[in-house]
Amino acid sequence: MADILGFIALTTRVCRDIDLAQSIHVSAELGPPLRLPPTIVDFLAAGLNLSTEDVEECWAVLKEVVWDAPGPEQSVRQVETVFEVHGHASGIASRTFYPPTTTCTQAMSSRNRGFL
To answer: What's the domain of life for this entry (predicted)?
Structure first.
């Protein structure tokens, strides 16, 4: 699942690069290209730790999803809007301030000594 989400996240960010590498006769409005440019395949394979064959297979299956997805700026704005509209009532914020650890760092803490 993480590989699929990572693939979608990265490819939505490079859609313009994908489009730029297409023939002048191919338009982004017509839909995604059948194949990714080799440089994009190599980038995604390296970034996601996938084989180039896996990247090409992901593209074959997910290209319509990626191509129709909102751009990164629009996607971020949509998420922020959800937090602005619904977050406060739920007690959830888009930006939080948490300590860097999730457990007590004090040596004498009962959490670190076990149960009393």
So the answer is: Eukaryota
